[in-house]
Structure formats: C-alpha cells, structure tokens
Amino acid sequence: MLRVESLYKNFGGIKAVTNLTFEVQKGRIHGIIGPNGSGKTTTFNCITGVLKPSGGTVFLDNRDITGIKPNEAADLGIRRTFQGGKLVPGLTV
Q: For labeling, which of 10, 28, 77, 93 is most exposed (least CB within 10 Å)?
C-alpha cells in the first residue's frame, strides 16, 4: 500500500501542495485530477523522489520512503510516465 500523510511542498513562498493525505491499496488504480497549477505533478514528484517534500511522509508498505531517490523508488516499483503528445504515430485520439 502507498500512503501519503500530510504532504506539503513549498517553493519559496508558494505553497504547491498543502496537507495532502491519501492511500492507494495494492492492485487498485486511482487518478489525480485538477486544473493546471493545482499540484498534481508536484505530488507525483514528491512520491517518486524527484522532489523532496517540505513536510509530511510517504510510506510504501508501512516503510517511510520520504525523500527517496528516484532510482530507489523505481527499484521499489514506484514508477511514473509522462504525458506524450503522440505516443503512437498516425493516431490522433
């Protein structure tokens, strides 16, 4: 299980993520939706180790992995992908 508790990420005086808490059970699929600038990418970056949270904790199977390096997160099975404009050439949908 992935659990995020009271996650915060600030960039100077800008609060990108404030007091975010959620959990994802193994085998379940969830989505994070919101408008541009709402902290979705920052949240994923904190979970995957691209960014270190300003506060809060990230757990994987009850192990604190807050601030883990991206390659270590990948070794634990936490991976991400990026939005691609055209993943399959010739398709427009």
A: 93
